[in-house]
Every structure is written in structure tokens, then in C-alpha cells.
Design brief:
Length: 193
């Protein structure tokens, strides 16, 4: 199936922004890589910022679905197993050859003003991810689902950033140890059959 020009611009933007940075990628380079003219670009987007927002929207939608699917694949059907699979999913992400951190952390750093629409999009994604964890914690019978989700989200964020900055191969293992202590604190004791 042929990819529309709009979709090609979004995909090209996502690839370039993630790899090289949002401010570092100029509109001319983006258009050159996508193979479209400025007129064509402006037929689809009012500005580079609007394209960035669409890239974030699409990545948010994709990643929340992908994250949930990876948790199910690794952790099974029950919420407890899926929560514990968070670190398997992190392992997989960090092992990806083109891992360059979390796109939402990256964009928030480049657009640091809290009321900037781009920054708000990144913050919303983080809230939505925490809600996924909160839902799983609630269904897993956590004694404090909100606290477990908040703390687990902080560990995940720290893992993304630490691995991106240091490339420490043990980052995920350290995060898993921290996560296991959270599970022991908040989740009911598992009874293995």
C-alpha cells in the first residue's frame, strides 16, 4: 500500500527528529529527505511545530499500544505478570540498535517551557504511560496502585535517560532490582503453583 505524502512527512520527521534532535533538523533537510517541496509541506502542515506535534501524537498512540502488547507477550494475561514484565520490555528497548532515549524526554528537553504545546504533548504522554501502570497495579491488587505506578514510572524514566547518557549495559539490571523491591512492597505475595 502506498504511503501518503502526509504520512511520509510524519515518518521522515519521526526518524530525523529522534536520531538528530528536533531543533537540529531544519525544514529544508526534512523536505529534502522526504522528497517534497515547501508548498507540498505547507499543504499538510502549518509549521514545523505542527509536524512535531503530529509526530508526537502518532508516536504516543503507537507506543502505548506497543507497550501494552509487549507487556502481554512477556507477562501473560494477568496484570501482575504484565507489571513484572516492564523490565523485560525495557531490556528489549535498550537493546535496540537505534535506541536514542525516549523521544518524549528528548523533546521535553529541547522544548523546556512547561506551557509550550510540544512540552505539553510530552508531559501528557508520560501521564498516559503512568495510567497504564496504575491500571495494571490496581488490577494486580497493589496495596497502593498510585504509588506503585508513580515509582515504577520514575524508575522507567531514569532507565531511559541513564542508558542513553552512559550506555551502561547494566542500567536495566539495576532498574529491575529497584522494581523488584517495589513489587515486594506493593504487590500481594505470589503463590507459584
Amino acid at each position: 500500500m502506498a504511503v501518503s505524502t502526509r504520512e511520509r512527512l510524519i515518518r521522515t520527521g519521526a526518524d530525523l527528529f529522534y536520531r538528530d534532535g528536533f531543533h537540529a533538523v531544519g525544514l529544508d533537510r526534512l523536505l529534502d529527505t522526504a522528497g517534497v517541496t515547501k508548498t507540498t509541506f505547507y499543504n499538510h502542515f502549518e509549521s514545523k511545530e505542527q509536524l512535531i506535534l503530529m509526530v508526537l501524537h502518532e508516536h504516543d498512540r503507537w507506543w502505548r499500544n506497543e507497550f501494552a502488547e509487549r507487556l502481554k507477550r512477556s507477562g501473560g494475561a494477568d496484570a501482575d505478570g504484565q507489571l513484572r514484565a516492564v523490565f523485560d520490555v525495557l531490556d528489549g528497548m535498550l537493546a535496540e540498535r537505534d535506541f536514542n532515549g525516549c523521544i518524549f524526554v528528548n523533546v521535553a528537553a529541547e522544548f523546556p517551557i512547561p506551557h509550550d504545546p510540544v512540552h505539553l504533548a510530552a508531559a501528557d504522554h508520560k501521564r498516559q504511560m503512568e495510567l497504564i501502570l496504575r491500571d495494571l497495579a490496581l488490577r494486580a491488587g497493589a496495596s497502593d496502585p498510585v504509588a506503585l505506578a508513580e515509582e515504577l514510572a520514575i524508575i522507567m524514566e531514569g532507565t531511559y535517560v541513564t542508558h542513553q547518557v552512559t550506555r551502561n549495559a547494566h542500567t536495566s539490571r539495576i532498574a529491575r532490582r529497584l522494581g523488584e523491591s517495589l513489587f515486594g512492597k506493593y504487590l500481594p505475595t505470589r503463590v507459584d503453583s
